[in-house]
Fold this sequence. Notes:
Elements: E1 3-8, E2 24-25, E3 28-29, H1 30-39, E4 44-49, E5 62-66, H2 71-81, E6 88-93, H3 101-112, E7 117-123, E8 128-132, E9 135-140, E10 146-148, E11 152-155, H4 156-165, H5 172-178, E12 183-187, H6 198-204, E13 209-226, E14 229-237, H7 244-256, H8 262-265, H9 278-291, E15 295-304, H10 314-325, E16 328-334, H11 340-343, E17 347-357
Parallel strand pairs: 1-4, 1-6, 4-5, 7-12, 15-16
Antiparallel strand pairs: 2-3, 6-11, 7-10, 7-11, 8-9, 13-14, 13-17, 15-17
The chain binds cytidine-5'-triphosphate and magnesium ion.
The site of cytidine-5'-triphosphate (CTP) has 22 residues, from helix 2.
Amino acid sequence: MGIATIVVAAGSGSRFGGEKQFSRLGGRSLVDHAVVRALEVSNAVAVAVPEGSGYGYPDQRVTVVAGGATRAASVRAAFSALAGEFDMVLVHDAARPLTPVPVFERVVAALARGNPVVVPVLPVNDTLKRVEEGVVTGTVDRDRLARAQTPQGFAWDALAAVVRSGLEGTDDAVLAEGLGFTVTTVAGDERSLKVTTPEDLSLLRMPSAGLGLDFHRFGEPGRFRLAGVELVGWEVIAHSDGDVLAHAVADAALGAAGIGGIGDVFLDSDPRWSGADSLELLAECVEMVRERGFGIGKVDATVILERPKIAPYLETMAANLARVTGGEVVVKAKRAEGLGDIGAGRGLSAFALVVLGNG
Ligand code: CTP
Ligand code: MG
């Protein structure tokens, strides 16, 4: 009983130029993206992958099987790997990594209303021409056409009939149509784009950026840290080690991933961070960003302070930040030209822009 999803990921990606399902996007493979989303609505997930791919997914609800020579054969292999009967089975392309969970939910809701086969579709917005040898021979009425996406949903018996039939087709609904099932549509989503070529994958890589700032006051003469580099001048008055540069980068990374700010994640009152190494704190933030499926692409940061002169250390700071974030990092320094408290040398600040990449 319940809902199972079959993720088909056993294709060879001939138009992509390789097994696209294992390409990475935002910190995880396309197939992992599909499985993560499928798990949001499913009690069990069966993934069909190429024989000997070594693919695994660390969740006991997920079963991995070797697929077949065609998409329909892969569906059959995954279907027979499902343990027991489910009320409904969804079939989803691993090549659609970013299908929003609400699309899965719309399919499930339509099945729950008693429809045996459900397909998410989108309208055709371009005018469609019939073309023969480079010459237009007619215009097709697009109002009666729709683009079919996945996940496609089936009552258990409907998919069992498709599997038994051994029919072949580029999607599963077409097979059900052939068997006389009524196929009902729900709204698809443009973000559910199917990756066919490398260009499709670049379309899905949307840049997201975050801005981070941090300020600290100087105290007694002593040492302070910037991106892990220890500098001689003053102590910084702070709960952690007061590394404004690491904090600004962490804040920007969390913001870019939509998590919030460093103050939301690490409470000042948390004794763990008393005098903590801020590069470790940054590493935790980067890990949270990765868990969201992103990576750090670029970091551009500026430290503002009057003295000491930090130009000789900027490259080391950038290298430290690059090691921890995995991104491309630039660190610059500026004086505040005597303006305000920072200009008077009573403290320092850092600004960072982080652009997320594909980790
Ligand atoms: N698929 C599968 N088993 C096959 C063929 C395809 O599981 N024998 C899966 C693909 O991995 C993909 C989905 O079906 O997730 C849609 O297929 P398609 O986009 O055509 O992927 P490929 O067959 O891998 O690509 P190509 O046709 O360019 O070779
Ligand atoms: Mg194919």
